[in-house]
Specification:
This protein is α/β, with parallel strands linked by helices. It has helices at 31-48, 65-82, 97-110, 125-133, and strands at 2-7, 10-15, 20-29, 52-63, 87-92, 117-121. The chain starts with a strand and ends in a 6-residue tail after the last helix.
């Protein structure tokens, strides 16, 4: 697994062998770190047509409303422009109720768009990876 981005609040990894991106979020994420990490994801998605993500939010304490809005208004539409198939997101949820609810709200909003994202929440990382790997890898 190759580390693509490192920051005190987030690390981004590319698992080329298994065809997924992994984001490990921590603490209270600053908007700029959030944007940089997710923009780097878009670069890898474009290069490799990645459609699988493992998002570890277990150590995440807070994401601001600006970051959530940017994710919904900018990032997901940009992702939709890059892929022509389903996107699979396995999420290891935060212990913070606020973060968990915010994440579920974004997932719910996606269901009302033309973008087709399948998001599942897991308490166990092994089960999350098994589910991701059971889905198509993209091109």
């Amino acid at each position: 697994m190759e580390k693509l981005f490192e920051h005190p609040q987030v690390d981004l990894y590319w698992n080329k062998a298994d065809g997924y991106l992994r984001l490990d979020w921590r603490d209270r994420v600053e908007l700029e770190a959030y944007k940089i990490a997710l923009s780097k994801c878009l670069e890898i998605v474009e290069q490799h047509q990645v459609v699988r993500f493992l998002i570890d939010q277990r150590a995440l304490e807070f994401v601001g409303s600006e970051a959530q809005a940017w994710l919904s208004i900018r990032w997901f539409p940009a992702l939709e422009q890059l892929v022509n198939e389903n996107v699979y997101m396995a999420i290891l949820p935060s212990k913070s109720l606020f973060v968990r609810l915010a994440s579920q709200t974004v997932s719910q909003r996606l269901k009302n768009t033309t973008f087709y994202s399948i998001t599942k929440y897991f308490d166990d990382e092994t089960r999350a990876l098994d589910w991701l790997q059971s889905n198509p890898i993209g091109h």
